[in-house]
Amino acid sequence: MFRVGLTGGIGSGKSTASGLFAQQGVPVIDADAIAREVVAPGQPALEAIRQAFGAAAIGADGTLDRAWLRTRVFAAPDERQRLEELLHPLIRDAIRDRVRRLTAPYVIIAIPLLVEKGWRSEVDRVLVIDAPVEQQIARTASRDQMQTEDVMRILAAQGSREERLAAADDVLCNEGDLNALRERVTLLHQRYLRLAGQR
Ligand code: ADP
Fold first, then answer.
1. Residues 112 and 17 in one domain
2. Residue-wise pLDDT tens for the chain (199 aa)?
3. 61 plus 110 within the same structural domain
4. 13 and 40 both lie in a single domain
5. Domain containing residue 157
6. Which of 18, 76, 88, 136 is surrounded by the most beta carbons within 10 Å?
């Protein structure tokens, strides 16, 4: 299976582009959704988190207390790393498993922090959705009803646009309207079908 990793900064248009690939019939695996699934009650990750971070990590309803955990690791890079080391292999295996069960010429795997968190080896090609920073901020602020400053804080915690572009095999410039985006997705879809067929 030919695997295309789709990434980009917040508000660049990853979800929108993923949706357009899905409309072309391409299976899309969302790493964020998988990350939520692996910590669901009954999954081994939840027990591992409880052992590493204590019972306070789990709420009264038995689900992971994400807000608590986020606050706990926010200011503690070593704890954040511990959490990532615990979750990363589980997410990776879940993605591999899902890919294995697919039948399609190629698959899109949407991974927001693909470049930052070392997911390159899990994909055959990197597609970066790119938009000017001002547009990322405006789109995110309007989508999530956030203040510009809060979006900028999230942006600052992600890798830079330059780092992502340096890791890209393909760049989808999403600075235009939705029609322009749709046209570019269609062209990339044709390219990926070709590349998948050559393997
Ligand atoms: P990401 O998943 O990268 O955070 P989204 O796909 O959610 O970004 O896009 C951010 C916001 O911008 C959404 O509200 C989306 O509808 C809008 N958007 C994305 N691309 C375009 C575009 N080309 N034209 C207009 N709005 C867009």
1. yes
2. 999 999 999 999 999 999 999 999 999 999 999 999 999 999 989 999 999 999 999 999 999 999 999 999 988 999 999 999 999 999 999 999 999 999 999 999 999 999 999 999 999 999 999 999 999 999 999 999 999 999 999 999 899 999 999 999 999 999 999 999 999 999 999 999 999 999 8
3. no
4. no
5. 1-27+106-199
6. 136
For a substitution probing ligand 1, which of 143, 173, 183 has the most ligand atoms within 8 Å of its CB?
A: 143
Kindly state whether residues 3 and 76 are assigned to the same domain.
no
Cβ of 174 closer than 6 Å to ligand 1, yes or no, is yes
Ligand 1 atom nearest 9 alpha carbon: 3
Letter string b/e over residues 98-122, b meaning 16 or more CB atoms within 10 A of that residue's CB: ebeeeeebbbbbbbbbbbbeebeeb
Which tokens belong to 121? Answer: 């080896």
CB of 143 sitting under 6 A from ligand 1: yes
- CA-wise closest residue to 17 among 110, 104, 103, 145: 110
**Ligand 1 pocket, residue 178 CB under 6 Å:** yes
Output the residue whose Cα is nearest ligand 1's atom 12: 139
Domain count along the chain: 2
